[in-house]
Amino acid sequence: MRRVATALIATAAALAALLSFRSHTPAALGAAAAPAASPSASSGSGSSGGATGGGGTESSSGTGSGSPSSATTATATRAASPAKNGTYTGTSADTQFGPVQVKITVSDGKLSDVTVLQVPDNGRYEQEIVAQALPILRSEALSKQSADIDIVSGATYTSQGYTRSLQSALDQAGI
Q1: Residue 89 · residue 41 · CB < 8 Å
Q2: Closest C-alpha among 155, 133, 137 to residue 147
């Protein structure tokens, strides 16, 4: 009887510990997963320097420790500072069908344009998918002012690459 009581108490204690466990918040994970290297960007009306990067560099700040408290602080700092006007090139996002890369323009602290620099081009079918998906993705990004946009049905991999590259450019701009 004593063993049963001990087992029940141990089980209840383990269950209580499991239920009280707090994982990291999504915002903290997003900031902690941000690249530590300085992203490339070109400000003003200059050119982006091609499909692989921008003309100038913008240094990133932060401790780089990846702890939840520093990630939360970095997110709060980014949200408090206004977005920087200019043109920013997102990183190239590799997908199953090829790379996707976008360039954004920020005016008056808001996302004003999204231009596609690279998309998969694996034949006529892929071109039709991209031609259908890109206007939808661009419209959603401009209306939501973020990379938190819906995936276009039939263009899942392209949509995912688009949002990854878009988020990279938005991070550079401070949006």
Answers
A1: yes
A2: 137
Q: Which of 133, 175, 127, 174 is CA-nearest to residue 155?
A: 133
Helix, strand, or coil here: 157?
Answer: helix
The domain locations on the chain are 2-173
> Which residue bears the tokens 């976008």?
102
* Nearest by Cα to 151 from 129, 168, 172, 128: 129
2-173: in CATH 3.40.1030.10: no
Q: Please check whether residue 105 is in contact with residue 118, taking contact to mean a CB–CB distance below 8 angstroms.
A: no
Interval 65-95: pLDDT, tens = 444 443 444 444 445 567 789 999 999 999 9
Indicate if the pLDDT at residue 159 is higher than 50: yes
- Classify the phi-psi angles of 50: left when phi > 0, otherwise alpha if psi is within -120 to 50, otherwise beta: left
> Global pTM?
0.55
DSSP character string of 89-149:
EPPPEEETTEEEEEEEEEETTEEEEEEEEE----SHHHHHHHHHHHHHHHHHHHHHTSS--
